Amino acid sequence: MESLTWQDALARMPNQRILVIGDMVADEHIFTRASGMSREAPLPVLQFVDRKLVPGGATNVARNARALGAQVWVSGVTGKDSAGQDLRRLLTEDGIQCDELYAVDGHATPVKTRIWAGGDQQPVQQQVCRIDRVERVSTAPALCERVVADLACRIPQTDAVIVADYEICMVDDAITAAVLRCARAERKPVTVDSHGNLKRFPGAAVFTPNQPEVEFTLGRALRSRDDLEAAGSRLRKVLDTQVLLITRGSEGMSLFAAGSDPVHIPALGDSRVIDPTGAGDTVSAVLTLALLVGLPPPRAAMMAAAAAGVVVRKLGAAVAAPAEIMEALASTEGPERDRV
Ligand SMILES: Nc1ncnc2c1ncn2[C@@H]1O[C@H](COP(=O)(O)OP(=O)(O)OP(=O)(O)O)[C@@H](O)[C@H]1O
Ligand SMILES: [Mg+2]
User: Fold this and answer.
1) How does the average pLDDT of the chain come out, rounded?
2) Structurally, how many domains does the chain consist of?
3) pTM of the prediction?
C-alpha cells in the first residue's frame, strides 16, 4: 500500500469525529511589569498589564484536535461561574460542540492562574508563580447517569474518544467503565491521557502519559534508558494496548508499539521554548488523529512531536496549525524523508 504523506494525513483529519471527555480547566494568565521593591516585604511589586483566559485541561485537548479540522465534542462539567461561561464561549467560538458540557450548581470551574512578569525594558515574560483553584470533587450521581447516557449516544457517532483525566472530578470509575464498555462495543479507539493510575483503563488503544505518570503507575522511578525500555515494553503489555507513548518533557518521547522495538524521538524544534504548558494535551490530540487517519505509530508519534515542538514556543496552552506542523516536520526531516 502506498504510504501516506504528511500532507495527505493532515488533509484527512477534518473528516474525523472526536469526543474529548475529561476535566475542563480554565487557564488564566495575568501579565505584569515589575515596578520596584515593596517597602512592606522583601519582594517585587508587579503592576497589572493584562489578563487572558485560555481553555486548559481537556478543553486544550479539544482545541488541539479542532485546530487540525476535526469535528470535536466535549463531555464534562464546569461551574455556573464566569470561568465556566468563558470556557463555553471560547470553545463555541472555535466550533467545538458543547451540548454535553454541563454547568453544575455548587461546582467551581477549576482555574489555574499563572502570573507572568516582565521589566520596563524587558518585554520577555517570565512565569513567577501559579495559583490553583481546583477542588477535587465527585461527579453528582444524577449527572453521572446523564453522562453515561450521553456516551451511549455519542460514541457510536465518533471515530475516537480521548480521555483527558486531570484527576479533578470527571473521570471516575463509573464514567471510565462506561467509556471503555461503549467504545469496545462500538470498536472505537480510546486514547487515555491520565494523571492517575494507568491501570484503571484496561484495553484502551493508546496511552500518552508523561514519565512521572508512568512512574506513579509502576510505583518506582525509571533510572536509565534500559530501565525505561524494559518497563515501557512491559507496561504496554500489562495495559493491553497497541500504543504507549511516554512523553519526557525536554527529553522528547518514547514510543512502545505492538510488534516493534521502542522508538525514542528527541524534542523537536529549536531551543526557543517559551512555555511547555499543555504540550502533553497537544500530543494526545495529534497522536490520536494521526493514528486514526492511518499513519503507522512511529510516524504518528513524529507528527505529535512536531506539534509539541510548535506549542512549546507559544505562551500558555496553545494549538499547532497544520501549516506549522508541516514546517516543523520539514525542518527536522527534510522532504526526502516524508515517506519513512
Ligand atoms: N522544555 C521542553 N523543550 C522541548 N520540548 C518540550 C519541552 N517540554 C515538553 N516538550 C515537548 O512536549 C512533549 C510533551 O511534554 P511533557 O512530557 O511535558 O507532557 P506533559 O507533562 O503531559 O505536559 P502537560 O501536562 O503540561 O500537557 C514532550 O514529549 C516534548 O516533545
Ligand atoms: Mg499530560
Assistant:
1) 94
2) 1
3) 0.95
